[in-house]
Amino acid sequence: MATYPRHKKARLLRDFMIETDMVKLFKEDEQESTIFFRTVYPMLGDNKHVVINIDDTVYIGVQTLLVEDVPKEKRMEVLECINEFNFQFPTLKYVMTKDHHIITSMFFNGDENTFNANLVLGTTIQMMKNIAEKHYGQLKSILG
Predict the structure, then answer these.
(1) What is the architecture, at CATH level 2, of domain 5-143?
(2) What b-and-e string marks burial along 9-45, b requiring 16 or more CB atoms within 10 Å of the CB?
């Protein structure tokens, strides 16, 4: 049986989580061509879903669902706000989806030979802290 690059990268991430005693914070599952490491991050009394996506490409994605169903009357104000957020952290991007949800995305380069689990997990945690401390409150105040 072949070992796919996603499995090697996932094993490296899992091993790092075990070494740093973080593995219990994540749920791991595999669907089709991607392995997902899922967790929640607390923000101002809300729990936000965070997903690390590992597949066979040279990219590792991290996404967070921050807001579901932005009301129609708030969409322009929210778009202006997240456009400002996008200038503050160049590696983190906020997007309003077609379904009017707000997600954040970060991507890392790394094939199975250059994958850096410490960088991925450390940056993810730091960015979640930044979102919680600097941006999420603004979004909540706009949405009411």
Answers:
(1) 2-Layer Sandwich (3.30)
(2) bbbbbbebbeeeebeeebeeeeeeebbbbebebebee
Cα angle vertex 39, ends 69, 130, to 5°?
A: 70
CB 16 within 8 A of CB 28: no
CA–CA gap between residue 39 and residue 103 (Å, rounded): 15
Residues contacting residue 74 through CB under 8 Å, at least 6 positions apart:
142, 143, 144
Query: What does the mean pLDDT of the chain come to?
Result: 93
Query: What six digits make up the tokens of 103?
Result: 């997600």
Q: What is the pLDDT of residues 78-90, one digit of tens each?
A: 999 999 999 998 8
Which among 38, 39, 40, 48 is positioned nearest to 140, based on CA atoms?
48
- Nearest-5° Cα angle at 76, 73 to 79: 130
